[in-house]
Amino acid sequence: MPYLELNGSRFHYHADDYAEPWQAKDVVLLHHAAAGNLHRWRAWVPTLARHHQVIRFDMRGHADSQTPAERAFSLPELAGDIAGVMDSLGIEKVHLVGASAGGIISLRFAHDFPQRLHSLSLVASTPKLAQMGPSIEAGLWRQTLEEQGTKAWLLSDSQKRFGLQAEPGLVEWYATEGGKTEAETVLALQDCLLNEDLTPLLPDISVPTLILAAAQDEITPPEVQYLMAQQIPNSRLQTFEGVGHNMKVEIPDLLAGRVRDFIGNINPD
User: Contact, 215 vs 222, CB < 8 A?
Assistant: First the structure.
């Protein structure tokens, strides 16, 4: 497996590129959610890598990336990891795609490193994780993680994470992959993100932004999606029915195609 060494930590990453060798191409960087890993994006790769170089990595402490000695996260540090991955691979600018918690980190990156972006795409994300729907209890999340672990936590409210038509095999695979990250790491990341509110930063996000949202999503509810669309100056919102918060893995071909078309209409700097 390929790894990068960043500031004394080891990060697992993949790079895919099936575009024509003689054609110029931009880079798309995919950032997964809490308790996720780079394999959550596997179904997106065929659509995007035919036209772009696609980079994906396991977030700090997740799956095959090294777990920090101190399980404490900060949003600037997590955003800085994206810059570190880019620097290590000699990449100046990317089209950044972030899902759920990965979208929160990507929002912070867009604010802190605007010169490193061509565009930003957010998949079922939010500027304020604490602003969840009434049926989601962060305290119950913590209890389940502490007592039963990451996989059990992801399965415990899977009906809120997936649409009714999601295949049982997909749900099981999703939770099993999540189980590769220790519950203590997920709890530390949640503690960080639940205390963050990036809403004041939204008007300062200057890059073209695509917001992809599930119409029925209690974790990143529709009102938050509309807020981002209103507050981010150069943004557009697309909403999808019949899928849940984890629509990234429910309708990957459709969403990857929307991102491909979006970034294809952006003139490179």
Answer: yes
pLDDT in tens, 19-29: 999 988 999 99
Can you say whether the dihedral through the CA atoms of 99, 102, 104, 108 is positive or negative? negative
Helix (H) or strand (E) run with residue 214 in it: strand 209-214
Strand pairing category for 94-99 and 27-31? parallel
User: How do beta strands 9-17 and 53-57 pair?
Assistant: antiparallel
Domains of the chain: 3-264 (3.40.50.1820)
Q: What is the pLDDT of residues 231-252, one digit of tens each?
A: 999 999 999 999 999 999 999 9
pTM of the model: 0.97
* Count of other CB atoms within 10 angstroms of residue 9: 16
55: region left, alpha or beta (phi > 0 left; psi from -120 to 50 alpha): beta
